Amino acid sequence: MKKIWGLSALLLLSACDPAVDRFENEAKLFVRHLMIDVFKVTPPETLNVKASPTPGSVTSSEMAKANSEILLEVYQVTYDETEVDSREKFGELVNSLNGGASIEGVYRGIVMGNRYRGLEAKGKAASPALLKAFAIEMAELQSTMVEPTVFSPDTAKSAPTIDYPDGSEAPAATPSQEVKAKDRDQAVKELVVIFLGATPFTLKRALADEALKKMDELKDSPAEFAQWYARFVVRMCDARVDFGLPQRNNPNPDFHVLFAKNMASDRVKWEVLNRYHRYLNAVLARETSRPSDTAAGEGDDAQVEAKPENKADKK
Q: Which of 44, 125, 217, 255 counts the highest number of beta carbons within 10 A?
């Protein structure tokens, strides 16, 4: 299924600076994909949504379709399923996006909602392979942060007690205490112990929450944000996971720097969350599809991880 990124932001990619002309054709092809090819395809769920007017060449109808597509992706990668459980609820959230709600706000509403919490509470504990994949990514992410979250066995697996309305903006997180710099391997081991017994849904939420916190640290430095995003994307490309669009799987860092500089930060945030969710979903899928008579140790060899990020990103 084809997915949509930020339409209005991506349109800017067709008017790039001459210094980056070599990426202009890729950008134009992407815009064509969004504005022509995608809208020839009938969405799998036809919803009666009321779209708010949008400026420029993107009509309200096209924007409604775009919001429907991106919300469908949010549902699919967050819940790790192909069907929408409630068309009525889905339509309400599309309307929220049409009315100006952020993808981050809608995402937070979903993972703080009763259904997702139920999956966290009643789901099967994550396997050692999935737990290790999560711990590696969390340790890598925290190594680039100014104030990484301090997890403990008592708090790591618990969602916040405040029940946010779906689609609302969550309040700013309270800064955590300073975390002493640790060896990466030691940090991975500690995270495995702390999150032992957590469900895959808890691991995905915790990693996404920390990623949002990291991106908030960079909100006042757009150039640094774009550079961090590009390095993150290139590193995740090593995981050999399909992230939903050919452009997302492009390992060219300059393309992603340009992309991040010309799109709304809300869209960049979703691109990061999307990759983390898809990566952990892929690890889980690989494991569940593996034959039961897999030889000892083969699971570790099959586990694909992205390469560590350049520590120069550390503030």
A: 255
Task: Decide: pTM greater than 0.70.
Answer: yes
Using alpha carbons, select from 236, 220, 257, 271 the residue that is nearest to residue 104: 271
**Six-digit token pair at 262?**
């010309």
Tell me how far apart the alpha carbons of residues 230 and 250 are, in angstroms, rounded to a whole number: 10
CB count within 10 Å of CB 175 equals: 10
Q: How far apart are CA 126 and CA 204, in angstroms?
A: 11
Give the whole-angstrom CA distance, residue 291 versus residue 298. 11
pLDDT of residue 21: 46
Q: Do 208 and 277 contact (CB within 8 A), yes or no?
A: yes
pLDDT at 72 over 80: yes
Contacts of the segment 283-288: beta carbons below 8 A, 24+ positions apart:
283/129, 283/130, 283/133, 284/80, 284/127, 284/130, 284/200, 287/127, 287/129, 287/130
CA-closest candidate to residue 4, choices 63, 49, 92:
63
Phi, psi (degrees; rounded to nearest 5) at 90:
-60, -45
Are residues 175 and 204 in contact, defined by beta-carbon separation less than 8 angstroms? no
DSSP secondary structure, 169-198, as one string? PPPPPPPPPPPPP--HHHHHHHHHHHTTT-
Closest CA to 306 of 223, 255, 231: 231
Rounded distance between C-alpha atoms, residue 206 and residue 148, angstroms: 12
Nearest CA to 130 out of 232, 202, 231, 211 is that of 202
Q: Which residue has the tokens 């991040």?
A: 260
The three-class DSSP label of residue 213 is helix
Task: Convert the pLDDT of each residue in 174-200 to its tens digit.
Answer: 333 334 556 888 999 999 999 999 999
Considering the chain, what is the average pLDDT of its residues?
75
Which SS3 state, helix, strand or coil, does residue 51 take? coil
Kindly report the CA angle at 163 between 159 and 166, in degrees rounded to 5? Answer: 110
> What's the token pair of residue 75?
């549902």
